[in-house]
Amino acid sequence: MFPDVQIIPYVIPGRTGTQLLPQDIAILHQQFANIRAVKEATGDFENMKLTRKLCGKDFDILSGDDDKTFKMMTDPEIMASGVISVASNIAPAAVQKMSNLILEGRIEEAKTICDKLNPLFQIVTVKTVEETPFGNVTVKARNPLPCKTLMNIIGMPSGPARQPLGKMTRKGIEIVLKAAREVYEKSPEILKPVEDFFDVKLSERLYKEKFWKDLTYD
Q1: Cα angle 187-68-52, degrees, rounded to a multiple of 5
Q2: Which of 164, 171, 163 shows the shortest CA–CA distance to 212?
Q3: What average pLDDT does range 97-106 have in this prediction?
Q4: Rounded Cα distance, 79 and 6, in Å
Q5: In this structure, is residue 115 part of a structural domain?
Q6: In a domain, 116, yes or no
Q7: β-strand 135-141 against 126-132: which pairing, if any?
Q8: Of all residues in the chain, what percent are helix, strand and coil, respectively (each to 5)?
Q9: Residues 4 and 53 in one domain
Q10: Domain that holds residue 199
């Protein structure tokens, strides 16, 4: 119906409870000229390799998991073209540079940036064990809640998450803060654009409770 609009199927079984298989993607790619890419968030590298085999070299596989982008783009049996990224909401320049360096074949330089970004990649989902009057429970703060929370902490206008997502627990925010502080202290250039563009001081926002006290449950 819309042949001029590129359609990118999102394969995210962890969210949808179902999965388009590589065979499904290949059939769609064969039948519709405007389906030339897929967002791959299965976490299954064998699934990605089969997608590449069935869809051919001219088909774009895009990473849907920040922490798997480097492997997906450098694996010759997957050859991902890039990433639909969560962490790029916080560090867009660094994520873009990493991806471009891989496409240019500058793998070691890209790996250096990937290692610097890794703490941010790890907070896309945050799991904590919380105490209740009826025993301990595992709480999972899923994307986009941890990253939106961090964006608010560091002064980026993000706003609250949509229901049913709410706030993070205090333990969850501590995990987010630990990751952000690691990046800020070891690789300050990654978050420097945030300071410059939004005119904020991360030396204050990442260390003073007033910047996150309203973002957590009591």
Answers
A1: 140
A2: 171
A3: 98
A4: 20
A5: no
A6: no
A7: antiparallel
A8: 50, 15, 35
A9: yes
A10: 121-215
Report strand pairing: 10-11 vs 37-40: parallel
Whether 10 sits among the annotated catalytic residues: the reply is: yes
| Active-site residue, from 10, 97, 111, 171 | 10
What distance in Å separates the CA atoms of residue 218 and residue 216, rounded to the nearest whole number?
6
Choose the catalytic residue: 39, 49, 111, 171: 39
pLDDT tens for 169-203 read 999 999 999 999 999 999 999 999 999 999 999 99
- Angle between helix 22-31 and helix 45-55 axes, rounded to 10 deg: 30
Tell me if residue 198 falls in helix, strand or coil: helix
DSSP secondary structure code for residue 168 in this structure: B
Cβ neighbors of 44 (< 8 A, separation 6 or more) are none
**Amino acid type, 118:** N
- For the full predicted model, state whether its pTM sits above 0.85: yes
Structure tokens at 122: 């790890």
* Residue ending a domain, choose from 65, 84, 103: 84
Residue 150 lies in a domain: yes
- The answer on 126 and 209 residing in a single domain is yes
Q: Alpha helix locations (H) across the chain?
A: 13-16, 22-31, 45-55, 69-74, 92-103, 107-121, 145-153, 170-186, 192-198, 202-205
Residue with tokens 């300071």: 195
